[in-house]
Amino acid sequence: MKKYLLYFFSIALLFVISCKKEDATQIDTEYPVIHIDGAAAFPKQCSTVKRGEKFIFRARLSDNTTLGSVSVDIHHNFDHHTHSTEVETCGMDAIKAPVKPFLFIQSYPITAGLANFEVQQEITVPADIDPGDYHFMIRLTDKEGWQTIKGLSIKIL
Amino acid sequence: MYRLLATQTLLTSFYVKILFIVLVLAFAAIEVQGQSLVLSGKITDAQRQPLKGVMISLYPGTLQVKTDVNGYYVLTDLDKGNYELKASFPDFREVLVKVELHSQDLAIPLTLHRLHHQLDEVKVIDKHIELRRQEESLNVDVVNADFIQRNLGGSLMKTLERLPGIKTIGIGSGQSKPLIRGLGFNRVVVVDKGVKHEGQQWGADHGLEIDQFAAGEIELIKGAASFVYGSDAIGGAIDIKPPAVPVPHTLGGSVDLIGKTNNSLYGTSVNLYGRNRHWFFDARATLQDYGDYRVPTDQVYVYDYAVKLYKNYLRNTAGKETGLHLNAGYVNDHFRSVFYLSNSFSKSGFFANAHGLEPRRVDEVLHDRSGRDILMPNQEVNHWKAINHSELQLPGHRLEMELGYQHNFRQEFSQYVNHGYMPPVYPDGLEIPADLEREFDKEVYSVNLRDNITLGRHEVKVGANLELQHNDIFGWSFLVPAFKQITAGAFVYDKFKLSEAVLLHGALRYDHGRINMFAYQDWFNSTVTIDGETVTEKLSRAANLSRTFNSLVWSAGLNYNPEGGFSLKANVGKSFRMPIAKELGANGVNYHYFSYERGNADLSPEQSYQADLSLTWTAPRWSVQLSPFYNYFSNYIYLNPTAAHDYFYGAGNQVFQYAQSRVKRYGGELQFKYQLFKNLSAEVLAEYLYAKQLSGDKKGYTLPFSPPASALFNLTWSPQIKGVEDSYFSVDYRVTAAQENIVPPEKKTPGYQVINVQAGTKIRIYSRPVMISLQAQNLLDTRYLNHTSFYRLIELPEAGRNIILSLKIPFNIHSVPR
User: Fold this and answer.
1) Are residues B615 and A141, on separate chains, in Cβ contact within 8 Å?
2) What count of Cα atoms within 13 Å lies in the side-chain half-sphere of residue B798?
3) Do B486 and B539 belong together in one domain?
């Protein structure tokens, strides 16, 4: 009888030991960061841009290891849906039906192997689009596939 | 020599507690030579009159004989060993006795008693679950309707979550899917009444369309079980058995009443059954209606965006469910054929501030006006099922057949939101309704055939399965193409009794599958500027695609049950899984995750090798069971979040690409029970799981939805109180470790401790046992995050304190006449 008990615990112990010798390879679990607090960064939460004009999207991007790619999506928020990731709320126009809203989707490459990157891209706002509340979404990935989303509320005048 | 232990199989549904008398009778031992032993005896009634035609069954095995005109039966050519002998005869109480055949023939006479409901009760010792565990080399757990009643959760899978190794992937308070040792979705098979349940297993926000009140016994197989259940059982299987057939010449039923405080749920399940000698019916209707559920916080953050909750209610998570069931059929001693018809319907809302995971600004005034209304976004699921199970007993053979038809229809409604290049205003004249985001329409035909053959020491099972699927899609968003699928498989399984203590198992299975996916084109134009050139077109998201898969899998196992309290089981085997349509053909944006999911038409079937061990030591006052496993996948299919964004097909979203990698997994469960005092027992249930990808883009990372280690400490007090029966008061204290081992896009989840309390009793009213169960889930209203919850990514805490009261009131319209 006791023999079995001994078996039992020796097998159990063996199992526990075999689990312990796991190699501790470091994996990256950190998200990349979009910095829009710098003085030069644009747009910021509640920024305004004008129709028929150009503006420069400027932000500092960083990761603990290697950055992946960055993508920008500007779409209307006339229906007041929520994409904003910012605490500050901006004064919104009344809900309205879109006629010819501005839609801009573009992804920008980041030179391979960088941990820090200043994105500077010129974006043209057409003159004939609907003015009003828009979302300016920035999506940033790192090499491992972690993604950070920043949703900014902006106004096109 | 031998020991008689009268037991009783479940004669009818659990709520009808049949009384019976144990009979322990004389024996005679005859000297005999060789291995060929004989078991014989005379069956009489209480007046000592011989009974002719009594069915005598010997387990394990499929041996059956009937008594002759003088009440005698003879079973010849038996090997020595432990058996259970069952005597059944219409209108009489079944008797099950344990027989140990050693070197001598045995004579076991039995006396059968007429069924009569008002006899004094004798404690029933039900051994068939224990026997099942001892004779199965896979890791198997069996629970019955009492367990469901005691631990009733928001859905069947939530109820089963108390078992070690079982977790759920859930959304809201009523929908969840099983996760066995960290594997879920299409890696776990749910079998309902013998036929594989086919819903939308691949989606995290779809529940399982099973009514937990209609379940009889549930068998959970932890570990690869492809050789019995086919392709998808690579992670395990959950086999839901129908309630037992009613006792002859009865007419009765029961009423269940359920109330829950957290989501103000009220519900009822009404059952009516009847049987004459051979024909029976068993009908059930279940209705549940619940409001928004509450969490222990008044503010949540959806992607950092603060959402205020009105009085802790999760906006628009109300729902309702109905389940209708009719089982009817013919039963005699050697033949049975039963039809199972059921329809389950549910309508439930999604948390309004995050449809899926996508943040939405909602009309809070409208949503907070009532906690019970189901506004948009919401889903409606209807699952209709018709199954026939037939069984024929021949000498040495038991033939079984299941025929099944299922229709799963799921619709997801939400207000139109233009994403990416979709037009800002929903166009008129489009065939798709503006509020129909997705629709999945699935029809499934299944055929299973099995023969259980007894050949001396061998118990052989041969069988074949065939399944045909037809899947249609509709709605303004696209994720998975429509497809047709045919799978066919054949298997042979042998259980060989090597000696008194050793059982050997071997199985082989061959499968063939073919999937045809159909082309899909967007209903809207996408516009992209390439080198100053503007291209506008309706994107083709899927092309016609056909793939064929073949697979040969095997399994080998051992049971060692020597004298004394120790027992061991071991199993090694190969399992496989065919890639599903989503893995092969997805090509669209899942706005719930802001991911552009891209399938891979070249995926090969997943192959898994698994070794399972289970060691049990049982002593009079305690028992301990340790079940470790090791599992290796040579090509695990997973959705890999890449570093890229796609602005054409993916509308600027991150590319999630289906890929395959080598994966190792190991872990185990520990169960420890200790009887402290006569009425006080303690239990510890613990589980641990580790998974690691060994190749590919995410080498070194774990697999998604890996549950953290956890342990459940239980103390149960079962006092003998005059006037009531089966009283219990039980406390579950669950400690869950933090999950630091994550893979994109998951988040690290802190550890937590939760206390659940269960109490209950049975009171006799008009001699019928009325069962009262009370539960307090999350007693301390602890705020915690569940790593495997769908809403984990948006930091939504789990439900707060929930008091659950349920009553089961059996009634009898007509008892067995004398």
Assistant:
1) no
2) 25
3) yes
